[in-house]
Amino acid sequence: MTVAPHYRYKPSTYVQTYCSDEVADLAKIYEPDINVCIVERPVDATLDDFVEHLLRQTSPISFVENVTFASFDFYRLLPDKGHLPGYRAFCQDVARLVGLYCDLFDLTRVGLRLRTLNHAMCPKFHVDSVTCRLICTYGSTGTEWLEEAYIDRSKLGLGSNGVCDEESGLILDTDAIHRVPAYAIALFKGSHWEGNEQHGAVHRSPNVTEPRLLLTLDFG
Is the pTM of this model over 0.85? Predict the structure, then answer.
């Protein structure tokens, strides 16, 4: 599933979110009016058990590295967890997501970040300064995003004057806030997508305290 990466953005009234349960639909991110693409998938019980065990542990996980898909040994992601049931299934799942991402954008290297969080890493709505980021939350609560029709972009960043999103006027309708389901594959166009500089997907970390395992992929 290789698609040419230089798809020119053509602004419309409102960019949209595309939701599906078919992995092939990740290619919808190339459509001019699609800013967020989310593919839900069934949760493997072995994988879920491993993630739950991982999140009960107190030691944090942080893996940050640019990896070459063809040569990287995904079984060394968390070498001290290799004895746990489900570890191989987890590593294979991460490898599958990296493979999909590389295939979709015709990449050989990606920036891979895998970390446990028990706080909102990015608590305010924002746009990423990337081309297109893949986000997958293993367990717990996924990333929040806003429907385009209900965003006042002038209130992003410094435009909020230091006021929280709920009070700054950025959110025009709180019912327009959505969360990515756990284990779903989410693609968010950033401000570096050609022609999309002023229309990057607006999202934030969920305000939750329970631990979650977050995987993000970026162009390497």
Answer: yes
